[in-house]
Every structure is written in structure tokens, then in C-alpha cells.
Design a protein that fits this description.
This protein has 491 residues and is of the alpha/beta class. The chain has 18 helices and 13 strands. The strands form 4 sheets. It has a 7-stranded parallel beta sheet, with helices on both faces. It has a two-stranded parallel sheet with strand order 6-13. Helix 2 links the parallel strand 1 and strand 2. Helix 8 runs antiparallel to helix 9. The two termini are 45 Å apart.
Length: 491
């Protein structure tokens, strides 16, 4: 593996990016446009009805955001002119053949132009409907590979996965591929065609049930995903279908140069285009902000456990450097992009950062009064959570059920509402449990070799930084990440 200049590699290249209005993809697109304006063009695949709608989505969900403010300052009134020459938003869908691009001439143009395909499209909902997650994360990966294989000048397929395809496996997780049909728990019978058939049969069964509603069908498909994931050792539908997607790519890649990038928990930008930009709610954000708003009665999680987090701009820089390093090399390489080995972050550090930040910058509630935060109860095991939850919520719920029955269901509304809320909490806790009590560490030996390559060029080492050892976690969370989440997500 060799690396000359990353900027030279990007010069005059044509790149297809799927899932182009997603959080990570937008940072990737902005970075390339900012550091290498001589990129040839970026085809951006967007879920939309037509080209006009795709352009509108890109402008509304990307260009109009603060994320693009550095480019706006650089180009001023000429920004749209620059973007029109470099960026081509395309209406499409990775669940379809030819990525859902209906214009035959456009497909032919793309197949002749594209040098690199970057697949970021995915559903990241832990308990997504199984049919939806399977179509996007598993079969979608296959469709992207098939399209890339038809590109005449293809130099690389970069597929963004997740480190959590390893499930709840404790210890050091290596940067190795998932073998087709190999379950995490060694259970027999894992077969992608079988999973496809199970989904089809379940949908057929549900559609023939006259009493089924959209809501009940969605819930049944969500439950099916969790059941199938658990059967083979994965904790949720998201990581299961992403693992299946990796298996498909590994089996069908042929001579395609393939890089699979597995980030851990992606947090706000560390430095570029400016510190603290984030979009969408992440687990640790909802906990921190819930605490700041005074809505959190306790923290669930082992204070000494390692939370593997990595800023989004570091993930994007690793993506770009990996593209340049592996172009035209017909092998499969896997990179863990995280911090648990290089610069471990303890769960208690995030709790302390939240306390420090909101003590100095209290949340102002709807009455205009500051919310005073204090040290709150930490439940450091599932046993302590279950005891706490039973005493505080389940016993009162059972009492209300008795009273409600005795008073001819006079408290039906209250009882139903409380039961719904407790069921929701239990479901969420079950989904996030693997991350709150993680015993996994993600080996980043391959990623360290990539960092060493880019260090040989001082200018580009500063431009394409992705070394988590440079992060001081308390400073990052107190002064960058939490303020960024407050500003951009929880306005």
C-alpha cells in the first residue's frame, strides 16, 4: 500500500456518493469541495422523485445548512455556479437495480465517468422494520457493488459499515471480514436467500390478515428483525443487516478494489469545517441533553466501561485517505475508525462533562427559568436498573391497574399512557444495552498504518487528520460536542 498525494488523487476524479443527504455523506461532500475544487464531479444519489426534487433536497438539506458556511464564505455569490459545475444530484434508490436511476442516457454517462463509488446509504435505526433494513443495508450493498462493477473506470468501492457488526463480542475485535453464513453465535442456517424468503412470507401473511393495520404490520416487521438478529447472535436489526451486507460484498466483489470502513459512535466535528457541527440525535446526546433539561432521573451504564466515539470529520478524513491509498488494488481491506484502543473514553467522563457544561450553561426551560443540574443516580448494571425501574414505575403501574379495575376503568387513559411509556423505556434500554455496558475494543492496526502513510506529507497530515490520540475528551465534550448538540440539534 502506497500513498502519494491525496489532493492529487482527488484531482479530476468523478465520485458517486449514495445516501448523499445523510449526516456523514454531507460532511464528506463538503470536505472534498472545500479542499479539492478541481475534483471533476460528484454524482450524489438522493431519494427523490426526479432530478429537480433531488437538487431541491440537496440544496435544502445540505447547502442551506451551517455545514456549508465556510464554502459560502469562500465563494460568496458564486457558490451556486461552482456547485452547478461540480455537483450532480440524482434521483435514485439503492434498493433498486441501477440504483433506481431511470434515465438510460444518464446511467450510461455515469458508467463511463465514475472513478470511485462511496456507499454511505443505510438505515441506522436499531429496530427498523426488517424488510426495510434488509432492502437497504443488505441487498442495497449488493446493488451498489453491481453498479460499481459496470463502471468502466472504477478504481475503488468504499463501503461505510459500522464497528458494531461484531455485536456484543467482548475483547479485542479485529479488522477482519465477516464470512458468508457465519453467525456470531455459531448457530447454523444463516443464509441471505432464506432471510429474504422469510421476509416475503411474513409480509404475505400480514397482508392477508384483514385485522392488520399499518401500525401492527410495522411492529410485526420490527419484531421479526430483532428475532432474526438475536437468533444468530446480533443484538439488533441494524447491525445484523449491515453484517449481512458486508458478507455479500466479500463474496461477490471479484477483482473489485474494496474498502470497508467501520466507524464506531460518530459524534460532532472536531475541527472542520468548524468544531461541533452535528445533525440528528445520537445516544450519548439524548442522555446528555435529557440530563441538562432535568428530565433524567438516572444514568444507566457502567461508569468504567469504554464508550467508543469518534468525531465525524475524522471518519470522513479516513474515508478520503483510504480511497487514495487503495485505488486500483484488487483486495478487501477493513478499517475500524474509533478510539477505544488508541484513546479510550470512559462513560463517566461523558457524565462529568455533562455536569460541568450544564452547571456553567444551564438549560432555560419554557418558563424562562434555568434548570439546576446536580449529581444523579448511576445504575451501573442491568440488575440495578431492573430493581430501580420495578420500584419506581412497575409497582405503581400494577397498583394503578388494580385501582382502575376497581373503579370501572375510570383511569383507563392514565393507565394506558403510563403502560405505553414504561414499555417504550424497556424497549429502548434493551436496544442500547450492548453500547452502555460494552466490553469490546476495536483494533485499529490497519487504520494506524493508514495514519502513518498520511504523516509523510505534513501539509496533508494536517488536512486529513484522523488520529483520536489528539483528542482531550473532557475538552471536546464540554467545549465542542455538547455545545454543538445544544445549538444544532436541541435548539
Amino acid at each position: 500500500m502506497e500513498l502519494d498525494s491525496v489532493l492529487d488523487f482527488l484531482h479530476d476524479k468523478t465520485i458517486l456518493v449514495t445516501g448523499a443527504t445523510g449526516f456523514l455523506a454531507k460532511i464528506f461532500v463538503e470536505k472534498i469541495l472545500r479542499v479539492q475544487p478541481n475534483v471533476n464531479k460528484l454524482y450524489l444519489l438522493v431519494r427523490a422523485t426526479d432530478a429537480k426534487s433531488a437538487l431541491q433536497r440537496f440544496n435544502t438539506e445540505a447547502v442551506a445548512k451551517d455545514l456549508f458556511k465556510v464554502l459560502k464564505e469562500k465563494y460568496g455569490t458564486n457558490l451556486q455556479s461552482f456547485l452547478s459545475k461540480k455537483v450532480i444530484p440524482i434521483a435514485g434508490d439503492i434498493t433498486c437495480e441501477n440504483l433506481g436511476v431511470k434515465d438510460y442516457n444518464l446511467v450510461e454517462e455515469m458508467l463511463g465517468d465514475i472513478d470511485v463509488v462511496v456507499n454511505v446509504a443505510a438505515t441506522t435505526n436499531f429496530d427498523e422494520r426488517y424488510d426495510v433494513a434488509f432492502a437497504l443495508n443488505t441487498l442495497g450493498a449488493k446493488n451498489v457493488l453491481n453498479f460499481a462493477a459496470k463502471c468502466i473506470n472504477i478504481k475503488l468501492l468504499l463501503h461505510v459499515s459500522t464497528a458494531y457488526v461484531a455485536g456484543e463480542t467482548p475483547g479485542l475485535i479485529l479488522e477482519t471480514p465477516h464470512q458468508m453464513g457465519k453467525a456470531l453465535n455459531s448457530a447454523p442456517g444463516l443464509n441471505i436467500n432464506t432471510e429474504k424468503k422469510i421476509i416475503e412470507e411474513k409480509l404475505k401473511e400480514l397482508s392477508s390478515d384483514e385485522t392488520a393495520t399499518d401500525k401492527s404490520i410495522t411492529l410485526a416487521m420490527k419484531d421479526l428483525g430483532i428475532q432474526r438478529a438475536n437468533k444468530f447472535g446480533w443484538p439488533n436489526t441494524y447491525v445484523f443487516t449491515k453484517a449481512l451486507g458486508e458478507m455479500i460484498l466479500g463474496q461477490l466483489k471479484g477483482n473489485m478494489p474494496l474498502v470497508i470502513l467501520r466507524p464506531t459512535i460518530i459524534t460532532s466535528t472536531y475541527k472542520e469545517p468548524f468544531p461541533g457541527w452535528i445533525e440528528g440525535i445520537r445516544t450519548i446526546d439524548s442522555l446528555a441533553i435529557g440530563y441538562g433539561k432535568g428530565r433524567l432521573a438516572c444514568f444507566l451504564g457502567d461508569p468504567e466501561s469504554i464508550i467508543d466515539a469518534i468525531p465525524a470529520d475524522m471518519v470522513v478524513n479516513a474515508m478520503i485517505v483510504a480511497m487514495a491509498a487503495h485505488a486500483n488494488q484488487p483486495c478487501e481491506t477493513i478499517y475500524h475508525v474509533g478510539s477505544s484502543v488508541s484513546n479510550p473514553l470512559k462513560y463517566k467522563s461523558i457524565q462529568e462533562s455533562g455536569y460541568n457544561y450544564f452547571s456553567r450553561h444551564p438549560w432555560i426551560n419554557k418558563d424562562g427559568k434555568p434548570v439546576i443540574v446536580g449529581k444523579i443516580k448511576v445504575l451501573n448494571s442491568m440488575d440495578s436498573f431492573q430493581r430501580y425501574f420495578s420500584l419506581r414505575y412497575m409497582l405503581p403501574l400494577q397498583g394503578l391497574q388494580v385501582v382502575n379495575s376497581a373503579l370501572c376503568h375510570a383511569f383507563n387513559g392514565t393507565y394506558t399512557d403510563l403502560k405505553r411509556k414504561t414499555s417504550f423505556v424497556l424497549r429502548v434500554v434493551e436496544l442500547y444495552k450492548p453500547y452502555l455496558f460494552s466490553k469490546s475494543f476495536y483494533d485499529d492496526m490497519n487504520t494506524e498504518k493508514l495514519r502513518q502513510l498520511v504523516r509523510s506529507n505534513d501539509v496533508e497530515a494536517n488536512m486529513f487528520y484522523f488520529d483520536p490520540k489528539t483528542i482531550k475528551w473532557d475538552v471536546y465534550f464540554e467545549h465542542i460536542h455538547i455545545p454543538g448538540a445544544v445549538k444544532h440539534v436541541f435548539k
